[in-house]
Amino acid sequence: MREIVQDLVASGLIVLPSGAADFNNPELRPLLDRFYVGSGGYDAEQKVKLMKLLWDAIGSEFGARHELYERNYGGNHEAIRTEILAAHDAMGLTRAYEDFADLCLSEYDLDGWTVPDLVNPDDVNRIGTF
Predict the structure, then answer these.
(1) Is the separation of the CB atoms in 64 and 3 below 8 Å?
(2) C-alpha count within 13 angstroms, C-beta hemisphere, residue 60
């Protein structure tokens, strides 16, 4: 659950108003209502309450905040992976990775290893008894 929240909500957990008093400030309230509005009919107050609840469930002020920065430094988790895939496609490496995975998978079946350089545990002669 923690992993999912960190990936999907990301920096939304730490880019929040400092506290409930901010919503009672007449100068800040219009800005909060504008920039923190939620989706699906949730207003800013409801969204911030939910984000703070998620943070309380998975985060801490000690190390978790820095961990989120590190996780999202290069961009969101989906973009990072698609950019790497696109780069490897452009360099012609993706097919080689797929071929390597296929080779590894072809070297064993339900009866064990199918190649001579790998040994099944039942092929090893035990010396002595336990």
Answers:
(1) no
(2) 3
Which residue's entry shows tokens 């590190």?
70
Cβ atoms within 10 Å, residue 68: 21
Confirm whether pTM is higher than 0.90: no
In whole angstroms, how far apart are CA 74 and each of 91, 114, 128? 21, 42, 55
pLDDT in tens, 35-73: 999 989 999 999 999 999 998 888 876 767 777 777 777
